[in-house]
Structure formats: structure tokens, C-alpha cells
Amino acid sequence: ASWAARCLGRSEGVDAAPALRGALDRPGVALDAAFTLALFDRGASLEFLREAAAGGLDGSRSGPDAVRARLANALLAAAGERRDEDLLLRLAESGAALAEAAKLATPRAADEDVDDSIALLADHGSPRFIAWLLETMTAATTPSRGFAAAHALARITGVPMREFDDEGEERTFDRELFAKRIEAFVPPPGADRLRFGERFDLRAAYAELARSITRQGVRRRLAWQVALLRGAVVELDLDGWIYAQLRGLRKLEGAKANAA
Q1: 26-62 burial by CB neighbour count: b if 16+ within 10 A, else e?
Q2: Residues 6+ apart with CB under 8 A from 246
Q3: For 125-141, how does the pLDDT look when each residue is reduced to its tens digit (9 = 90+)?
Q4: Each residue of 176-211: b (16+ CB within 10 Å) or e?
Q5: What is the average per-residue pLDDT within 17-28?
Q6: Is the pTM of this model over 0.70?
């Protein structure tokens, strides 16, 4: 059924929205349906995702609630709506607790990064997140939380975490120097979403997908961002070789150019 929800997004000449809206009430396929419904009825999809994400913040949440909230969090961050900024910050503050609750519901969650909700703030890219992330990085009580905040800051601002000496050897990460550079960063005027210091748009998503160092988990979320920006399902073999992914990206960019 989950596969069928995705397939509806690829069906030409079919009004898939009614079936997808109906699937939002079915726990096993609801999130996949919301993913695909966003291509047809963005408003209905995002409202469902907001409810699912907020459900994970309830003190009486169950393991399944936490799993749904974490997935909804990822999709809302990718969607990048300004109205979701406060919700995403609340989810980032509760990220570790959500991850622990999710582990009780599914073994697959046990290996996931407990700070993924912090990293997801960079998928959204709001300049508003910079101050919160900087404070979180400097006050972090665990290395993983501090690194997640630093990595999110680098993706939003473009300030590099990695530095090299004159002989090409990588220097040890200097948190204080990195923090000073973040404090000096000035967002482009009028930009409500950033990626590596520039206004986020479809080209920025393509560029990050084309980077060989982009992590696999980030690639999956980027593919959904591209789908939302293009208004169509993205056909990319994200599990295969990077060469095949780059070839698929060139096809997508060519299709957009031909349609223009």
C-alpha cells in the first residue's frame, strides 16, 4: 500500500488527490501518502504533517507517535514553509527524547542519529535558526549534539567547518573560530531560506545533490525538496553509484530547461 501511494504520484491523467487524502487516515501509508499528496494538494499534505509532528511533542506520546513525528519533521523541514519555523525549533529541542521513544517502536530507529531534528533545520534553511543553532553548539553537553548544530550552521551559512594548513593537512575543528565566523555572517537581503550562504532554490538543491560528499540521508531529503520545487516525482537512484545519480540529475535539469 505504501508503494501504491508513491505510484499514484507517477500516474499521468489520473486525479490522485482524492485517493491520497483518503489514505491519510491509514497509519501504515499515511506519511507516504502525505509525501505524494504534496505534489497535488500541498496545503492538505502539510496540515497532516504538522499534526503528526506536533503529536510527537505530547508528553504522553507513544513509540509510534515518535516515529511518525520524526518522519513528519523531516518532510516539513524539506518543505520549508515559514509558518513551520517555531514547530521545527520545538522538535529540535525534543530531538533526543523523540529518538529514544522511537527506538521502543522500531529497531530500525536504534541506529539513527539522536540529533537528526537539529540537522533538519538546515533542510529548511531559515536565517532565524542561526542564533538558536549557534547557542546550541556552544552550550552542547554531548559531542553529537554540538556537531549536529555545527553541521547545520555550515549548510545554512556556507561557513566551512573544515580547514587545511599550507601542507594540505586538515586542522582540528576550532569551535570558537567557527562561532566567530558564524556571528559575522550576514544573510543575503530578503532571503527566507538559505543553503551554503545563498538563497535556496531549485538550483541550490541540484548543486548539493551533485556534491560527492553529500551524505546519503541528506540526498533522500534533497530529492523530496526537488520534487516539491518541480511539482513532480523525482526519479533518482539514490542507492546506486554517484555517477548514475549525476546522470539522473542532468536529465532532470535538461527536462526543466526544455519546459522553460
Answers
A1: eeebbbbbbbbbbbbbeebbbebbbebbebbbeeebe
A2: 210
A3: 999 999 999 999 999 88
A4: eebbeebeebebeeebbbbbbbbbbeeebbbbbbee
A5: 68
A6: yes
Which grid cell sits at 71?
A: 518522519
Q: What is the DSSP letter of 241?
A: -
Per-residue CA distances from 144 to 172, 175, 226, 233 (Å): 16, 14, 28, 33
Q: Determine the residue type at 142.
A: T
The residue to which cell 537528526 is assigned: 116
Alpha-carbon span 32 to 236, nearest angstrom: 17
Cell of 161: 567547518
CA separation for the pair 89, 129 (Å, rounded) = 8
Long-range CB pairs of 168-176, under 8 A, 24+ apart, other chains included? 175/137, 175/138, 175/146, 175/150
Contact 208, 214 (CB under 8 A): yes
- 242-259 and 202-210 helices, crossing angle to 10°: 160
> What is the distance between the alpha carbons of residues 205 and 207, in angstroms, rounded to a whole number?
5
- Amino acid in position 46: L
Cell numbers 520524526 label which residue?
A: 70
